[in-house]
Amino acid sequence: MHRTSGILLHPTSLPGPFGIGDLGPAAYRFVDLLSEAGQGLWQVLPLGPTGYRDSPYQCTSAYAGNPLLISPEALLAAGWIDPADLEHPDFPEDQVNFGEVHCWKRTLLDRAYQGFLARADQSQRDAYARFQEEQRDWLPEYALFSALKIANKERPWTEWSPRLALRDRKTLTAWKRTHKAKIDRECLVQFLFFSQWSALRDYAHVRGVHFVGDMPIFVAHDSAEVWAHREWFQLEPDGQPTVIAGVPPDYFSPTGQRWGNPLYDWPALAADGYGFWVQRLRHLLTVTDLVRVDHFRGFAGYWEVPASEATAVNGRWVTGPGMALFDALSKALGADLPLIAEDLGVITPDVEALRDGLALPGMAILQFAFENTDGCGHCGFLPHHHRPRLVVYTGTHDNNTVVGWWSEQDAATRDWVQRYLNTDCGEPHWAFIRAALGSVAAAALFPMQDLLGAGAEATMNRPGTAEGNWVWRYRAADLDPASAGRLRDLSRMYGRESYPVGGE
User: Fold this and answer.
1) Is beta strand 301-306 parallel, antiparallel or unpaired with respect to 316-319?
2) Is position 478 annotated as part of the catalytic site?
């Protein structure tokens, strides 16, 4: 990883008129902003279709793209919808109402499906056929699952009729024959998503911007993978989990975090040569350029919670697959895997040994660096402890914004920050951005909220809470026009400035 920097922003947080950020004009303007500001990275959260509580870490597929991110304007430009189809409710500008957006966009995509069937020329039909062939390892199963979820009013698959839930072969064959158009519609929606994403990524690459993707270690229980491959997970005969994922009590929650994801049957995956993981990472590396592996420590050891427990307190540590999994990935995909290890939380020597044995960069969070240190300077997240093989963040999607964090600190912590950073922190977000850019860490990243100087109200996710997460959006008017130039000057000063292909 060369010396670079960038911004963390999920596409749902982009501005625009349709209730949610998407892959349309605002995404291209954001790429232009990154390029103008000398930034080489755009980090996103998982891009899949969201399920439980709209979390991108609870996707209904490990492969599919989120239909809500499909750009209506791009559908219009392609000819699949008419101008009248863009009429929409009065959506709020600064947050996502997922329920309303979901209903409106489903109707819009139904019209796009009909428009494609009616108006696509032969070259476009050929492109769609190629996409189906290239994605044959996951697309048919996902499209069937997604069509079944719609037919079952979005209920989890364990609440479907037993013959469908447990995949009775004759029942599924009959359902596919009867509902072929519904399944085809889901395939086309994926074609539309990945066509738009590919065009955006190509545009970004020309401007010197690359994407950092995000791969959760666990998959959602209500997902195509768990439904189609129950043998890969620790489940009861009826499909319910026996044990689930989470983390013990930590910085974010005194009762831990009960994620609810089913845990893998690692011996079963190993017997298959970790084929699911190879296919999953291969697919993600065709979509993004670098991949942040969420909850990396779980590969060394993970927190197992009985599914009957209401919190994550009463769990136990269980040994993960360790180097055997990464040996399989390296053998299939190449020795130098372009990964970032999210090594936060309870980090033990075995986690560090796995990370360092793979020569992967870990993460350092500047907000954490100044908490509970008593001004002693020993915290490893402080910049003087950084190393080149590292990615430094002002904060992540799970943190308060820097401005929000600063407003909550006591006088002693503020004094410590001011003395360490040698500033009065009149603009705490810029003080932290500068500290991140000045670090020896190869990559420096900061949430868009910190570039904007937004307060706690702009926090993307509050771990341990159920409501009000993932909804934040910025408005185009929120961005100070001078911010790009200021960020470019700092990036140039600290040797991180990125250039478009062919130079400026």
Assistant:
1) antiparallel
2) no
* DSSP β-bridge partners for residue 233: 264
Nearest to 260 by CA among 276, 277, 241: 241
Per-residue pLDDT for 504 more than 60?
no
Tell me: the pLDDT tens digits for 405-442?
999 999 999 999 999 999 999 999 999 999 999 999 99
Beta strands in 166-267 (DSSP E): 210-215, 243-247, 257-262
Q: In what order do the strands lie in the sheet with 316-319?
A: 257-262, 243-247, 301-306, 316-319
Q: Which of these, 116, 46, 84, lies nearest to 284 by C-alpha position?
A: 46
d(CA 447, CA 346): 23
Q: Please give the Cα distance from 401 to 397 (Å, whole number).
A: 9
For 49, residues 6+ apart whose C-beta sits below 8 A from its C-beta are 59, 60, 61, 64, 65, 66, 67, 68, 146
What letter would DSSP give residue 101? H
pLDDT tens, 177-191?
999 999 999 999 999
Largest pairwise CA distance in the chain? 70
Catalytic residue among 214, 222, 294, 343: 294
Annotation marks residue 352 as catalytic: no
Q: Which of 342, 343, 450, 497 is catalytic?
A: 342
* Confidence tier at 494 by pLDDT (50, 70, 90): very high
**Interior/surface letters 31-57, b for 16+ CB within 10 angstroms, e for the rest:** bebbbebbbbbbbbbbbbbbbbebbbb
The residues facing 139 across adjacent strands are none
Pairing type for strands 4-8 and 41-43 reads: parallel
467 included as an active-site residue: no
The total of other beta-carbon atoms located within 10 Å of residue 316's CB is 12
Identify the active-site residue in 73, 94, 309, 398: 398
Q: Give Cα 388 to chain centroid, integer Å.
A: 24
